[in-house]
UniProtKB/TrEMBL annotation:
Residues 6-245 form the ABC transporter domain. It comes from Algicella marina. One of its GO terms (molecular function) is ATP binding. This is ATP-binding cassette domain-containing protein. Keywords: ATP-binding, Nucleotide-binding, Transport.
């Protein structure tokens, strides 16, 4: 297998007596979608926060394209090519779709709102290209508050795209979407992997099993299994701990 784009080595995090991450080692390889699943409270968001730089691990390290990025801040990791979308929407509701996308593009400058060093037109083109990619080019002048929930999720992905990422961290992109919205998002993510590999945290098992090349199962902060969709479906420990007998 080729070298991983993103790798965690022995990430550990405690909240008091609770071990929310127990020496988690994962890889994300070029072109793949690696899904991270597990019951509520298993530690998925805690792990994503450590990878994105929002939470400092007690032990372990995070590597992007072979570089140790554990010491970098969240914005520095984003500039290095780690694009994260959030479980809870963080869009600027009163601003337009294009303004929100531009914010993502300017963030790669390291100097939000100060566009020295990079022509504004280039940033605008990059933002517009990302909106076209997610199908929101026609809504560029629309305030975010007027978008549907599904469109807002797509805008979050457009902002991630403006970072020209090396890897995507997607935390529950299907959350709050109806079945049609989930299907649209599933179709979109299937195309997105050609741009950069995706570490996908998701509760929607239909989407996970449709999209993932590999799945890791987290239970009580520990990866209890990693494998292909067929291997995970057939794993008796996973069925017992999470998927149930019907999977
Ligand atoms: N800042 C914190 N302080 C104390 N405990 C925390 C903190 N953040 C998370 N936890 C605890 O760590 C455990 C893992 O939480 P986490 O949110 O990472 O799980 P999760 O798998 O993402 O859950 P969900 O699927 O419900 O989003 C939980 O028991 C949670 O209560």
């Amino acid at each position: 297998m080729s070298d991983p784009v993103l790798e965690t080595r022995g990430l550990s995090k405690r909240f008091g007596a609770l071990e929310a991450s127990k020496s988690v080692s994962l890889t994300l390889c070029p072109g793949e979608i690696h899904a991270l699943i597990g019951p509520n409270g298993a530690g998925k968001s805690t792990l994503i926060a450590q990878i994105a730089g929002a939470l400092k691990p007690d032990n372990g390290s995070v590597h992007l394209c072979g570089e140790d990025i554990t010491h970098l801040s969240t914005p520095a990791r984003a500039r290095a090519g780690l694009a994260r979308t959030f479980q809870v929407s963080q869009l600027a509701m009163q601003d337009t779709v294009l303004q929100n996308a531009l914010l993502g593009a300017t963030a790669t400058n390291g100097r939000p709102f100060r566009l020295w060093g990079r022509p504004v037109d280039t940033l605008r083109q990059r933002a517009q290209a990302a909106l076209t990619r997610v199908g929101l080019a026609g809504q560029a002048a629309t305030p975010v508050s007027a978008l549907s929930h599904g469109q807002r999720r797509l805008l979050e992905l457009a902002i991630a795209l403006t970072l020209e990422p090396k890897a995507f961290l997607l935390d529950e992109p299907m959350a709050g979407l109806g079945s049609e919205g989930s299907q649209n998002m599933t179709d979109f993510l299937a195309t997105l992997r050609t741009q950069a590999p995706i570490l996908l945290v998701e509760h929607d098992m239909d989407a996970v099993f449709a999209l993932a090349d590999r799945i890791s199962v987290l239970v009580y902060g520990e990866v209890i299994a990693t494998g292909t969709t067929d291997e995970i479906r057939a794993n008796p420990v996973v069925r017992e701990a999470y998927l149930g007998q019907d999977a």
